[in-house]
Amino acid sequence: MVERRKPIKVTEALQRLMEYKKYGGIQHTPIEDSYGRFLGQDLVADHDVPFFDRSPYDGFAIRAIDTNGASRENPITFEVIGEIGAGSVFTDNVGTRQAVRIMTGAQIPEYCDAVVMLELANEELVDGKPMFHLTRSVIPGENISFQGEDTKQGTILAPKGTYINPGIVALLATFGYKQVPTSSKPKVGIIATGSELLEVDEALEPGKIRNSNAYMVYAQLQRAGAEAIYLGQFSDDFDTCYKQVLDSLSKVDFLITTGGVSVGDYDYLPEIYQKLGAKVLFNKIAMRPGSVTTVAALNGQLLFGLSGNPSACYVGFELFTRPIIRTFLHAYHPCLKKEVAILGSDFSKANPFDRFVRGHLSYDNGRLVAIPVGLDKSNVVSSLGLADILIQLPGGTRGYERGMEVTVILLEDQEGATIDSFIKNNINARKELRHEY
Amino acid sequence: MVERRKPIKVTEALQRLMEYKKYGGIQHTPIEDSYGRFLGQDLVADHDVPFFDRSPYDGFAIRAIDTNGASRENPITFEVIGEIGAGSVFTDNVGTRQAVRIMTGAQIPEYCDAVVMLELANEELVDGKPMFHLTRSVIPGENISFQGEDTKQGTILAPKGTYINPGIVALLATFGYKQVPTSSKPKVGIIATGSELLEVDEALEPGKIRNSNAYMVYAQLQRAGAEAIYLGQFSDDFDTCYKQVLDSLSKVDFLITTGGVSVGDYDYLPEIYQKLGAKVLFNKIAMRPGSVTTVAALNGQLLFGLSGNPSACYVGFELFTRPIIRTFLHAYHPCLKKEVAILGSDFSKANPFDRFVRGHLSYDNGRLVAIPVGLDKSNVVSSLGLADILIQLPGGTRGYERGMEVTVILLEDQEGATIDSFIKNNINARKELRHEY
What we know:
Strand content of chain A: 25-35%
CATH architecture of the largest domain in chain A: 3-Layer(aba) Sandwich
Distance between the termini of chain A: 50 Å
Oligomer: homodimer
Number of helices of chain A: 7
CATH superfamily of the largest domain in chain A: MoaB/Mog-like domain
CATH class of the largest domain in chain A: Alpha Beta
Low-confidence stretches of chain A: 261-265
Structural class of chain A: alpha/beta
Function (chains A, B): Catalyzes the insertion of molybdate into adenylated molybdopterin with the concomitant release of AMP.
InterPro entries (chains A, B): MoaB/Mog-like_dom_sf, MoaB/Mog_dom, MoeA-like, MoeA_C_domain_IV, MoeA_C_domain_IV_sf, MoeA_linker/N, MoeA_linker/N_sf
CATH topology of the largest domain in chain A: Molybdenum Cofactor Biosythetic Enzyme, Chain A
Shape of chain A: elongated
Domain MoaB/Mog (chains A, B): 189-327
Number of strands of chain A: 26
Helix content of chain A: 10-25%
Organism (chains A, B): Ornithinibacillus xuwenensis
Largest interface: A-B, 102 and 102 residues
Mean pLDDT of chain A: 92
Pathway (chains A, B): Cofactor biosynthesis; molybdopterin biosynthesis
Largest sheet of chain A: 6 strands, mixed
């Protein structure tokens, strides 16, 4: 079945798609396994920080009133009556001109209201007793970190949807999250289509290639934060294919097919969508590669039809599937981040439609530099592994030269961008040569 | 035991440490689990790409010789005698002015030597038979992707030590790596020390704080690519501590202790190193934070003594532990990448020693911008999660202002840097205000 397809803009496709976004649930994950996931709830301080008045330095806890009048000419002598390490508490009385040796982080004794830093105390043993002399006065509260001065109990320290990096893990531990409320990962099924496909462990044979898209998408899903489920390859028979899709939909939150969306003779997907009663949101986008990227919705569930061409499949996933996955994870920045970069080599092709070129990000004296990868046949295969950006060249342009400014989409960045900023944040015309590089 | 400590430069510490680097083994990992690991062997093409002469377009496979003399005035008519989809092979004879309909990616029939693109063939049914007319000649080899033109069998497509991203996974699948030779992860033990520490699930009590460093380091280890093993907290008794360290060393490739390396009264580590017979490589570095970062070696095994202060612990890990882990993983860029950035806010403190400030990376029109995090008490806690760079300010400087150039260390970057480039790639003086920001 060959059908008429009406191309729409990338931004419109994204907007249509996002109307079908859905949010996943929450599960509790041991703190040791929380790195790389997303917070399913706000991270809240369960106590003041500091939890008690504490000493920021090694020194001596004293009563400030006892230092009145201290000077170089009139040093005041304190008797050291005890010591407290971090973690212990000093509850005895501290009287006039008495002091307690205190370690960094330890709680200020009840009867003290200031700390003298170790360096300012001239220590001496007098009759075998530890003493020190002080040559300046201190004020009440000096060198004390007060309870709650860093953070008050109940403060939201990181909102729901935050990517959990090592710093967030430190916060989770500090505030007692032995079990972390994380966003449940969406289950995303992958079905590979294409009669030319062999499985990875099959020997090559004439006319065939190994199925690489399914595994590439599998890794893209992992990078995006989803649980990938490889459901195998389509059969050649329509009814079996239909049943495969129908069965799969009951097992997953989203379904991806790779291949079979080109305008070819052997493409069952349009018919399958029709028989399922799925609404095709779009099946042609004014972009290269990936123009045949198709998305359909059935009972609120999304079916992504990604191209069988590896570059098109890769780009279609990052532009359209990733924001849906990150939204499911409650990420407040579901899209990839866009920035401006200098083009690191010429790209002379015409761009009749928006083009997304896989590229490698480097830097030149603090400026982002984008180098297209895989344009030469001689390195098209090995360069696949170098891609960490997409270079976005707007439709209706041509003749990009080294040194021009281009929009780049950062594939490895975890911070991301909102849908709105992703849509707006483009260089929409060819920017003239501006930068030496 | 309070001991004399002689500070050395960061670069010297790194060099001393790297003399004790070791490389881990290889294990086979299912391709589905390979994302985010490191290649333990070179990734080699097990076949030519393409594996056979194939068509890059939808069109008709023909014998070029039959097109001689074709022109607008003298169109030549071909009879379509069959069709081949991707994955199937056409083995019948193709005679004079005969053609085979061919799909993108399909193998060129044995008797054909060129492809006419679909758009250039004027198709027509003549007496119910499919025919097309051609108005230009083609040359032998036209529109054929020849066997091996992208990649020859035996080519190394990614060297041992490459970080496995989705593009690398696509290559692994293409070349039949159902089981991927990945670098074995080093087992790294973590012991937390400090009498003030509570476990994450313990209720707070006066004078105590929860152990957050161990879990932070746990996540840093995961980010670096290691297998983290939390071995618990030290006891207060020297002999028990000594036994804990001795036992732990037999279970791990590297051992990290957090806390207990400050010049305090309750610090067992120097004595433990001594009793073990471990050689202390350094125990004082001219840097802030993390000046007390200690590394000792015993029978070629490294013991990292990281500070109990969270910032110092974090920085000590990224500067010293990470390169050792990445080297174990055979990564050819074991250190973090350094770049130049514009300082996004003033940093007025003096830097008597090299200072590493946790910061957040942003961008301004294609330029890297580094904003220190956690300098204000009001946000010191929540800002922990924002850190994705370290801002390196050289010792002997002061009064950094917004807009100045600084060296930044990229914490989330997977590409990394060599030891040499990490050591050399610094701005060594305060760069005057140069950038509007």
